[in-house]
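Field reference: sequence -> structure
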Amino acid sequence: MSPPLVLVVDDEAACRLIVCEMLADAGFVCLEAGDGVEATRMAYQTQLRLAVVDLLMPNKDGIETIMDLRRRSPETRLVAMSGGAGKLEAHHLLHTARALGADAVLFKPFRPAELLQAVHAALAAVR
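Structure field:
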């Protein structure tokens, strides 16, 4: 069986790189997208098992991206992540993301174990 394909969506290249490295170390194969527009396009072109989506991005934010991915590919599992402008804003955004289809949520910054816990929880989620 091939490793799960994960799309990491974040407008910060350094964050995408770090998340992809954490996931690669755990045996996942990663693709990267710099915003929701690119993520949606990539989702059309490949069979994703999971997407890890930042909520605050230009062009198409994470909430819109999660809603779009959920509509187009209900079997794809979704993890929302945000540091937000502050803890309260991030909490609100993550709560909204969960309500709109995210299977798990993460507050930035997070440790590798927290990322893997969210990823495994999302992959185990029943839709």
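Note: The two ends are 22 Å apart (CA to CA).
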